Structures are given as structure tokens and as C-alpha cells.
UniProtKB/TrEMBL annotation:
Record flagged with keyword Isomerase: yes
Organism: Limimaricola soesokkakensis
Pfam families assigned: KduI
Reactions this protein catalyses: 5-dehydro-4-deoxy-D-glucuronate = 3-deoxy-D-glycero-2,5-hexodiulosonate
Name of protein: 4-deoxy-L-threo-5-hexosulose-uronate ketol-isomerase
EC assignment: 5.3.1.17
A molecular function GO annotation: 4-deoxy-L-threo-5-hexosulose-uronate ketol-isomerase activity
Note on how the cofactor is bound: Binds 1 zinc ion per subunit.
Primary enzyme class: isomerase
InterPro entries linked: KduI, KduI/IolB_isomerase, KduI_N, RmlC-like_jellyroll, RmlC_Cupin_sf
Amino acid sequence: MLSVETRHAVHPAQAKVMDTAELRAHFLARDMFRDGEIRLIYTHYDRFVMGGAVPAGGSLTLETVAETGTERFLDRREMGIVNIGDTGSVRCDGECYEMARGDVLYLGKGSGAVSFEGEGRFYITSAPAHAAFPSRLITPADCKEVRLGEPASSNQRVIKQFIHPQVMESCQLVLGYTSLAEGSVWNTMPSHVHDRRMEAYLYWGMEEEARVLHLMGEPQETRHLFVANEEGAISPPWSIHSGAGIGRYSFIWAMAGDNIDFTDMDFVKPGEMR
Ligand SMILES: O=C(O)C(=O)C[C@H](O)C(=O)CO
Ligand SMILES: [Zn+2]
């Protein structure tokens, strides 16, 4: 079963006057992981798509998504998949990729139908693509690690870059995940924006009762979302995307837009934020 929800792009002036329910309706990505279903969110931010596929021991196939207006979803798109569950496999273009928890699969433009099998919980990201780069399974051993922050500022974390120019080629997609060191709570602090690229977060690896207080909004007009495990935040190009969590957590970040330079960020000092 496939379901697709559309999220339209929001002007910052509109976001400024939203109440909690409206903020959550536009920017919180929830209910993406249901047994036996593929559930997608089609955003109008760089036409980025995020979602979940949970085969629950069976098999699910993603082929046509009416929203793209193409015969098959990947005809003019690339895809990044992260397995946040137990081991499962993804079949595409005559290949079968076995994915352990934390593995990332890149599927290039024109790869055809995608089938999800086994006990995986597959987080799906996708963006329009102009060229067909080779599909590739990237394990944590192949990723590029960046260590940032320190315990004294409660922001010590490891950034694992998978779909990233220093690891492999892609069109628009840049993807990886960040894990907080024990005792550190802050991700992406100091905050930044990058008007050239949208970004989406998926928080995972959290206790059921835990929450991340995800900060969003223009730097001088911040708002927040309380986010649970396996929920995400859609970050428009004008918005910061930072958070402080209760207990351990990781988050998958994925971006699409005008460049694939991970370091192209406009930082905001904490003292400049409101
Ligand atoms: O902890 C961090 O800092 C991040 O993971 C930053 C995100 O990857 C990001 O916002 C990239 O633009
Ligand atoms: Zn960012």
C-alpha cells in the first residue's frame, strides 16, 4: 500500500504567525513508518520526497507515484535509503542489496522499480536528478566521519557522511546521519541556514518516551517542534534546524538544492538568535 502526502512551500512571514498545530502540520513529518506500507511526503521544497517503507517480513514495491507525473518514480529522480530497522534487502535494477541497520543505499536516476523486503525499516529520500550516477550500497565503514563539538558545550557528536562528494557522486542529494555522544544534547549548534538548499531531518534511535526539542524558523524568529522517534522535520531554506534531545538520539539529515557543498552554511551565533 502506497500513500503520498503533499506539503507546500511556506513563506517565512506565514510561518511567523502559525500556532503549534499549524507549525506541526507544515513542518513535522510523522506517521511515515507503518507495517506493510510505503508512506511518502512529497514536498515542494526542491521537490524533495521523504518517507518510510516497512515490509514487515513481506515485500513492498515502489514504482509509480502519481505526484511526479512520470511512468516510474525514479525515471527523473535519484534516491537515498537508510535502513533504521533490522536487516532487510532492497531489490532494484536486477540487483539485491542486503542492508543492515545504519547502511545507506544510493539509487541513481532510471533505476526502475524498487522493492523492499525483510525486517528493515527503510527511510526513503529522493530528489530530481539530471544525470544517472551508479547505484551504490554504502556501509558505515565506507562513510566519511566528521567529529564536532565538545562535552563542555553539550554538543559533542559524530557526523557520518554517506551520499557526499567525498564518498560518491550524486546529483542533488547529500545525506548522512549524526549521533550525539553520551551526555551531549545539542545537534547543529551553533545553528545555520543555507538558502541554497532545503534540508530534512529524521530523528531515530530514541527511547519511546523521549523527545527532541527541534528548533526551526528564521534565526531571529525561532519556533520549536517536539519530535518523537522516527519523526522528522522539514526545514525550508530560510530556517535553522537544530535540536536538543532527552536521552540518546541520532538523526538522518538529507538535503537537495543548488549545490552539494556540505560546508556551505551561514552560521548564526547563539547571541544573534531570538
Ligand atoms: O550535527 C550537525 O551539525 C549536523 O548534522 C548538521 C547537519 O548535517 C546539517 O545541517 C547540514 O547542513
Ligand atoms: Zn543544514
